[in-house]
Amino acid sequence: MPERNIDFGKYGARGIKGHEAVARQLDALAGYIATPVTARRGLLARLHYLTRSDHARAAARAAGLTATDRTVRAWLAATRSPSRKNLERIEQAYRTVRRENVARYLLARLNREGRGTRVEFHPLNQSQVDRPRQRPVEFRTLNVRRWDRIVAAWVAGDDQALDDAWIDQVADLGSQWGQYEYVTNIGFAA
């Protein structure tokens, strides 16, 4: 694509890719459990979320939690503690299942029956760039109406598909869309 940045940050600009900021905001909207998995309370909350029904257990297995039911019961009863590797698996399975569970709700809220959601683009940070190399990049807003591909890529954890879906939406900014490939923040609510 003609406006894609090839050597971002060469002169000191700082920011993150727009699709990463979108994924971060969607994660914030998903409402994950705040207590870390390493704390007993966080572990129990995640395990209860992943084992509360047959459907939840099947989704957790599909997401990579391979512990047996007997082992999970021992973790819940505090007779055994999961290893560090199993803690990572529990956290990953929890995040995957949570994303799948809230995706339909988020999609309906973001699309708002075709009206879309107002998105704020906070431009990249150029404070470390020499004055002659700085370019004027202002705060912008855009109403995104089609969130289907974005949310589907976020649920799947596919960064490339999320980037492609996000760039398709950012192209609606007009001829300046390449200036918003890297940003400091993307803001929206659902």
User: N- to C-terminal separation?
Assistant: 31 Å
Molecular shape: elongated
Which value, in Å, is the CA radius of gyration?
20 Å
Name the structural class: alpha+beta
Strand segment tally: 4
Mean pLDDT: 92
Question: Helical proportion?
Answer: 40-55%
Number of helices: 7
Q: How do the SSEs run, as a string of H and E?
A: EHHHHHEEHHE
Question: What low-confidence regions span 5 or more consecutive residues with pLDDT below 50?
Answer: none
Largest sheet: 4 strands, antiparallel
* Beta-strand percent range: 5-15%
List the strand order in the largest sheet.
1-4-2-3
Structure write-up:
The protein is α+β, with helices and mostly antiparallel strands and 190 residues long. The protein is built from 7 helices and 4 strands. Helix 5 (84-111) packs antiparallel against helix 6 (148-156). The mean pLDDT is 92.
Summarize the structure.
The chain has helices spanning 18-30, 40-51, 54-62, 69-77, 84-111, 148-156, 159-170, and strands at 16-17, 117-123, 140-144, 182-187. It is α+β, with helices and mostly antiparallel strands and 190 residues long.
Q: Which SSEs are present, and which pair or pack?
A:
Layout: E1 16-17, H1 18-30, H2 40-51, H3 54-62, H4 69-77, H5 84-111, E2 117-123, E3 140-144, H6 148-156, H7 159-170, E4 182-187
Antiparallel strand pairs: 1-4, 2-3, 2-4
